[in-house]
Design goal:
By secondary structure, the chain is mainly alpha-helical. The chain has a single domain, classed as Orthogonal Bundle (Hypothetical protein af1432). The chain has eleven helices and no strands. Bound molecules: fe (ii) ion. The site of fe (ii) ion has 4 residues, from loops.
């Protein structure tokens, strides 16, 4: 893997997909690039605002930065992206693993929508939320966007899906990026 620059830039994001987008998450069966493109396309279909579309596209960059086995991809990705994207993009990303814990705690049937790998990672992500954790999550800015991102994330694992290419999101990302 290419060394990751300390702060993201628009071109750095494209370079990361170029060098690592082919990596396949064994639990998901699609590449990082396919998963990202499906997520963005689903967000657009759902009339999400541009910041949430960008968050969906970029939500797993931490996996490409950390490599296989990384346990904090949401924090790693959000921290890196905060170098050039606003919190409307980075906060839903930072919270999307917490959003899984939140949804499973509030709605146990949500487990049926999850891939086996997502259920397996629940344990080291903290398991179900306590009452205090629930209220802390609900008071976090952008937590609703994180829940929306999470539900899209869970659906964006179709090996047969055809999605618009990465370059089709360049203008949207450029409008949001500051570097
Ligand atoms: Fe994901």
């Amino acid at each position: 893997m290419e060394p990751t620059p300390p702060q993201a830039s628009l071109e750095g994001v494209f370079a990361l997909f170029e060098s690592c987008g082919h990596l396949v998450d064994p639990g998901d069966g699609v590449t990082q690039l396919e998963h990202a493109l499906q997520s963005a396309a689903l967000a657009r279909e759902g009339c999400a605002p541009d910041a949430l579309i960008a968050a969906c596209l970029l939500h797993d960059v931490g996996h490409m930065i950390e490599g296989a086995g990384g346990e904090h991809h949401e924090a790693v990705g959000a921290a890196w992206l905060s170098g050039c994207f606003p919190e409307e993009v980075t906060e839903p990303i930072r919270l999307h693993a917490e959003a899984k814990r939140y949804l499973l705690t509030k709605t146990p049937a949500y487990a049926e929508a999850l891939a086996e790998s997502s259920l397996e990672s629940l344990e080291f992500q903290g398991g179900l939320m306590s009452t205090a954790e629930l209220s802390r999550f609900e008071s976090a800015p952008h937590h609703e966007a994180a829940v929306r991102l999470r539900k899209i994330d869970d659906r964006a694992k179709d090996p047969e899906a055809a999605s618009p290419p990465l370059d089709s999101w360049r203008m949207l990302l450029a409008r949001l990026a500051s570097a």
